[in-house]
Amino acid sequence: MPESAAEPDQPAPSRTMLERAILIIEALVDEGGPVGPRSLGRTIDIDRSAVSRILLQLSELGVVERVEAGYQPGPRLFEIARLLGALDTLPAAAHAALVTLVKQFDETCYVCAIHGDSAVFLYEEQSTKPLRYVADLGRAVPLHAGAAGRAILAGMSRVDAARRLGRGPLPRLTAKTITEVKKILDMAEADAERGYTVSMGERVEGGVAVAAPYFDQSGTCIGSVVYTSPVDRFSDPDRVGAGVKAAAAALSARLGHRR
User: I need a surface site. Which of 10, 148, 205, 233 has the fewest CB within 10 A?
Assistant: First the structure.
């Protein structure tokens, strides 16, 4: 039987009115100030006349408002944002990310936040296994020792990370703690490329941690999502790293961060 001819390339389906409206609102928010239909159209690749029509409808609903320099978010959009902010606080967003991770791996996971030159464990979801890694909530740990802190460094620029580490030498917590500032900065850069950090016994002997940074609406790294386990149960760093990276990205998205 002869092979069937290849299907010709099909044109991409046109966006619905709702999809275009959402793209316009997102682009308007990203601009951070008034912008006109022409500029918005170029940004999201939609015809200027279509953008103008949708903006007019959104302005009638109060979602956007017309000002001298173009359009900007309107009072109704700010009201929606306030309502969502009240519903989706950091504890709620962190809980959702942690539940997903623990369901996937059944190991204790944490959300940390940066505090000065330290990382603080704020939220946790426990493993069901009797032997598990435990970190004290509210406890500050150094940024250089362990995945929780180094993932935060990976979410910063090298200059900012170096400023927070100082000139060194850095304190050694275990035999595997890395104390050289340059080496930590180099590792943080490699972690940033990979998207997650792995630490084995650098802060707690016999413990493993995998962490990824999360970001706020402005794109600033404000903490890390952390998987922990005893070293003898850790066998698939790539799979765990991918899971932690996805959880951190989901948390960032709920906090308003868009890549």
Answer: 10
pTM for the structure as a whole: 0.69
| Other CB atoms within 10 Å distance of the CB of residue 22 | 14
- Which residues constitute the domain of residue 78? 17-85
Residues 6+ apart with CB under 8 A from 204: 133, 146, 173, 174
Residue 10: per-residue pLDDT: 45
The pLDDT score that the predictor gives to residue 158 is: 94
The DSSP bridge partners found for residue 208 are 200, 229
Q: Both 59 and 119 in a single domain? A: no
pLDDT of residue 255: 87
Low-confidence ranges of the chain (pLDDT < 50): 1-12
Q: Select from 31, 13, 102 the least CA-distant residue to 67.
A: 31
DSSP designation for 233? G
CA separation for the pair 241, 198 (Å, rounded): 8
Tokens describing residue 178: 């890395």
Q: What single string gives the DSSP state of each residue in 75-125?
A: HHHHHHHHHHHHHS-HHHHHHHHHHHHHHHH-S-EEEEEEETTEEEEEEEE
Domain boundary among 28, 55, 85: 85
For residue 161, the model assigns a pLDDT of: 93
Residues 128, 177 within the same domain: yes
